[in-house]
Amino acid sequence: MGMEQLGNEIRASLPGSLERLKNYLRLPSVSAQRQAIPETVDYVVQMLEEIGGQAKVLDEWGGNPVIYGYFAAGPEGDSSKTILFYNHYDVQPAEPLEEWNSPPFEPTLADGKLFARGVADNKGDLVARLTAIQVLQNNGGLPCNIKFLIEGEEEIGSPNLEPYLRTYQDLFQADACIWEFGNKDESERISMVAGIKGMAYLELTCEGAQIDLHSSVGAYVDNAAWRLVQALASMKNEKNEILVEGFYDGIVEPDAEVRLAVKELPFDEQAIVNRYGLKRPLITTAKRIDPREAMVFHPTMTICGLESGYTGEGAKTVLPKRAKAKVDCRLVPGQDPDHILVSVERHLLRHGFDDVKVSMVNGQRAYRSDYHHPFVAHVLQTARLVYDQEPVLAPNAAGTGPMYAFGKLLNLPIVSTGVGWAGSQVHAPNESIRLDDYEQGIMHMVLMLAGFSQALKTAEMHS
Ligand SMILES: [Zn+2]
C-alpha cells in the first residue's frame, strides 16, 4: 500500500480511535490513589478483544494487575517474529485541580489538541498502537505476532513488575520491544530512546542526640546537621566530581558509534537556562564536557532534599537532634545500585562519619539496547518516512524506568517512541497531545510493524 492510501486509511480510522481513547481517558486510573483500577483493567481488556486480540489479566502479587495482550500474525504474515509493546494504564494524580482549564478526566478537544490526565502518559500511545493494528488488519492482515504488557503501577515505580516478568518470561518472550512513551522536542523532532538510566535512591540520616537541644550547648555538643552536610560534602567536590570510592565501578564504555549518536542529540543551552531560570552556569562548562555526553553517559549524585531543626519563620535557636538527606544517583549501564549503597557506606566509615546511616529507598539498574541491532535501525528508518525532520534517537534517556528487567529477562532491544509533544505537560495540569502527532504516531507504528520481520530477517541473513 502506498503512503497516500495509508494516510487516508489512518485518517478514516481517527474518529473511532479518538472515541475509544476518550472513553479510556474518562477512567481516573490514578495508581497512587488506587482509583478506578478494576474498571480500567476491564476497559483495556475490552479494547484488546474488540479488535480481535486475546487478553489475559495477571493478578498475583496484590498490586494492580498486569494485562497480557496477544495478536497472532495474519495468514500472509510471519509468525516466527514477535514484537512486544510495553504500556501502562495508570496515571499520575490530577492535582492541583484548580490549575486545569478543563476537567482532567473529561477529555476536551481544543486547538487541535486533546487535553486529559494520562493522554500523553501513556493512554494515547496505547490507543495509537491499537489503531495501527486495526489499520493493518484491514489491509492484508498483521505482518507479525504482536504482544502487549500493560501494567498498572508505572507511576508508582512498578514495584511488582519484575515478579510478573520472571514468572511469565515465556509468555512475554519477543524479538524486540517498543517502550511506552516518546514526544517531539522543542524543534519538532521526534525524540526516541533506546535505553534508560538506572537509580540508587538513598536516604542519609545523622542522629546526634535523643532530644533537640538548646543551641547554647553548641559550645560543646556536636551538631547532627553540620555532621550531615560535612558527610555530603565529602561525597562530591566543588567541581561536581563524585568522590565515593567505587561509585564508577563497572561502567560500560560506549563504543564509537554510540558516542557519535550522542553528539547528534539536540541541546540548546540558552533555552534550558531560560526555561528553568538558572542562576549558575551549567556544571558541564567547568568540567569541559559536552552536556549531551553527561546526559547519556555520566551518572549523577543529586541532593533531593535536606531536613533538620527549625526552618519556619523568625528565629528558634535549636541544636537539632537529627538531620536527614535524600540523595538520588542516576546510574548508567554497568553500575549496580546495591554496590553504590555499599560504596557510600564504606566511604562514610572511611571518612569518620560512622554516625551517618545510609539506606536505599529504591534501586534500579540502567539499560541500553544494542545500538547496532537491526531493530533500532528499523525504528529509526521508518520514523524518517513519517516525520518531516530527522528523528533523534538517544542511546539511553537521562531519566529512569523499569527497562532493565525487560531487557535482561527477555533479552531484547527496546526503543521508546510515542505521540507526545514538547508541551505535553506530562505529570502536570493541562496534559495534552496534538491530533497531528497522534496521526503520525499511528503511521509510524503501521510502517514499523509492516517491515519489522523483514528488517530482522535481512539482518540475520547478513550476519
Ligand atoms: Zn509518568
TrEMBL record:
The keyword Nucleus does not apply. SUPFAM superfamilies: Zn-dependent exopeptidases. It comes from the Bacteria. GO terms for molecular function: metal ion binding; peptidase activity; succinyl-diaminopimelate desuccinylase activity. Residues 195-351 form the Peptidase M20 dimerisation domain. InterPro entries: Cyt/Met_Dipeptidase (IPR051458), Peptidase_M20 (IPR002933), Peptidase_M20_dimer (IPR011650). Keywords: Hydrolase, Metal-binding, Protease. GO terms for biological process: lysine biosynthetic process via diaminopimelate; proteolysis. Pfam families: M20_dimer, Peptidase_M20. GO terms for cellular component: cytosol. This is M20/M25/M40 family metallo-hydrolase. It comes from Brevibacillus invocatus.
